[in-house]
Amino acid sequence: MATCSYTVPDKNVTGDNFYGASICNQTYIDYFWNTYGFAGNKDYWDDGFGWEDACNTDKPLARTFNACYLLTYSAQDYQNDAYSGAMLNWARRYVRDNCDDLRSLCGDGSAIARSFKGAFVDDRIELYLGFWYSKDVPGRAETLIHESRHQGGKPHNASFPAGSVFGAGKSGADSTWGYEGAWMYGALYLWWFFAQGARTTSALRERARQRGNLVIDNAFATHPGFNI
Asked: pLDDT tens, 55-93?
């Protein structure tokens, strides 16, 4: 990662030490690699991004695998991923159904992720340094869901409200909760994770609640009228 510069935050706080203890298993590594859009993209995940060091949670690949583990196993009955159930169960299915080209790039140092989709476009999700080093593991799972929702056909359709930490007046918000856009999907998942997340810690569930409320308060042109 010669062109990237980053600082690894406290991995106990972000959950990378907790989840990193589970992902260093070839069965998991193979499953995540072949299920969540990595396959075929080795050139985007080597040269310092972690392909040759998949258990090292200082590096992007392992930090992404941590998010994949959280997505896959956080429901108590994770084997049931029917869309008729709770989002905690089917979010992993939604991501794998809509994320088939996942790439890692440096970005500008603060960018999180971006989804590309449309005519004459190579449909893909790009992850940047902010994804790995400014977000905790639940927040990374939220981002994978958010960008997969864009791949599923839901663009942002409004500007951020006054006072939004995401940039008041800038485009990139969703109009309402009922629009069922990318912000709603991300926040709803964090809500379920806070309420019923298994194989995690109470601290990470609380961080998910805080992040979910940040999204609810700042990412909708019309506030949903509730908080987590």
From this structure: 999 999 999 999 999 999 999 999 999 999 999 999 999
Strands (DSSP E) found in the chain: 102-104, 113-116, 124-127, 158-159, 171-173
Q: Is the pTM of this model over 0.90?
A: yes
Q: How far is the C-alpha of 164 from the C-alpha of 179, rounded, in Å?
A: 19
CA angle, 15 then 144 then 18, to 5°:
15
118-128: pLDDT as tens digits: 888 999 999 99
Cα within 13 Å of Cα(12), Cβ side: 0
Residue 170's alpha-carbon distances to 86, 121, 166, 219, 220, in angstroms, are: 32, 24, 8, 11, 12
Rounded Cα distance, 138 and 23, in Å? 15
Alpha-carbon torsion angle 195, 210, 9, 125, nearest 10 = 80
CA distances from 213 to 5, 63, 189, 219 (A): 30, 24, 12, 10
**Interatomic CA distance for residues 160 and 222, integer angstroms:** 9
